[in-house]
Amino acid sequence: MFSAGIDKRRANSWVFSLLIAVFAVWGAQQVAIKIGNEELSPIYQAALRSIVAATLMTIWFLIRGTPPWKMGVSMWQAAALGALFSLDFALLFVGLDLTTASRGTILYYTAPIMIAAGTALILPEERIGRIGTIGLATAFAGVALVLWRGNSGHDGNFTGDLFALGAAAAWAVTILLIKTTSLIHVPASAALYFQLLGSAVLLPILSLALGETWIVPQQVDTYWALGFQSFLVAFASYLIFFWVLKQYSASKLSAYSFLAPIFGVMFSWKILGDEITPAFLGGSVMVIAGLVLVTKDEGAS
User: Fold this and answer.
1) Single pTM value for the model
2) Please, what is the average pLDDT of the chain?
């Protein structure tokens, strides 16, 4: 019995170490996008990422013998998922072409805050408690501080900041769509597949429509950035996260979600040399604190 308890603790420790690694990968995503944008047009890069990841997901489903198109996703739902995912990453990739990775990371990870606020408005049974309300207010005040232009030392671009917030809003709308329709009963991996598949079709069209230049990458760093985004982020990390989600409650996992923006800012500072100004640091702490309070409130509920 004692041995079983030790084995369970070891298993839990291993699983949550894996989860922390997933959030680290998600935090590093913005750095990889920024590196890829140095050589590739932003939406073209996003399109390549989706094409590779969708291909990997298709192979994975075929090997498992579980076609995602037989998992209860209607045509309009698949189209909506693909369109929202395309909007999400088109805005994020363009935004990160205009602003710093650290700012883009903090603003993009306001999505869970938007999801909590939207869910409370749409689903009365998921009302936000006092702790969550304080968290929302803290996070939105932090966003205002991050966006504050009086801090002349930063390298961000206001348009890029707004694009990152728009990407967060698209992410939030996607989750609200899933939570308020029959998609709530569809395996998360199937929903992800149609997001990737739709964006693999729509993003190249959008890139061509905007007149972006399509080139074969010449820089090794670009290939590393694309490989990281396509395989580790859009394919492997999500499958690992969905597997962990089956083992533990969503509320327990959401308590760790604040790690992604922390890792994102750390990697942006260390790898890209992003300047961390007092106003940005203060706003980041407020956003992350708000995220912690909101997830704590959801866990209590």
Assistant:
1) 0.88
2) 87
